Each structure stands twice: as C-alpha cells, then as structure tokens.
Amino acid sequence: MAASMTVGDFSRATRLSARTLRFSHQAESLEPTSIDPSNGYRLYDTAQIVDAQVVRGLRSLTVPVQTIRKILLAPVEV
Question: Per its UniProt record, what Gene3D superfamilies does this chain match (predicted)?
C-alpha cells in the first residue's frame, strides 16, 4: 500500500502547485485518493507521483486537460 501525502507534500514532491492539483481534481485528470469529509483536505498516494509527472510534462507542452485525462485513463498495454 502506498503512503498518503497531504496536498502540500504532494505538491512539493511533484512540483505541481496546489492550485494546479485542485484544478486537476476538478477536471478529473488527477484525483486525490481520499478527501477528509470533516475538513475537505485532499490526500494523495505516493503511487500517484508518476501520473502527476505525466500531467506536469504534458501541461508544459500545452496539451489540453481533456486530452491529459484521456491519456491517464487509457489502458496500458504490455
């Protein structure tokens, strides 16, 4: 099981701003693994760092958010 990270820790680990993470969550391209119902804090798993790096790289290439979502949801063929 992967370790949970707060949005701040995840932001530092992935070099994505908290604002970008919130936007990615709203766009359903990089959703937190859980949200605390009492305070709304978002938690991410360390396993999501790879997806966050994909998001960061594709956004730097100005790939639209909808396309990033499709890429992240696409099945991986081995």
Answer: 1.10.1660.10
Which residue, 74, 75, 69, is CA-closest to 25?
Answer: 69
Q: Is residue 52 part of a domain?
A: yes
Digitized pLDDT (tens) for each residue of the chain, 78 residues in all: 568 899 999 999 999 999 999 988 998 889 999 998 999 899 999 999 999 999 999 999 999 999 999 999 998 887
**Domain encompassing residue 34:** 4-73
Q: What is the distance between the alpha carbons of residues 23 and 15, in angstroms, rounded to a whole number?
A: 15
Nearest to 52 by CA among 2, 9, 25, 16: 16
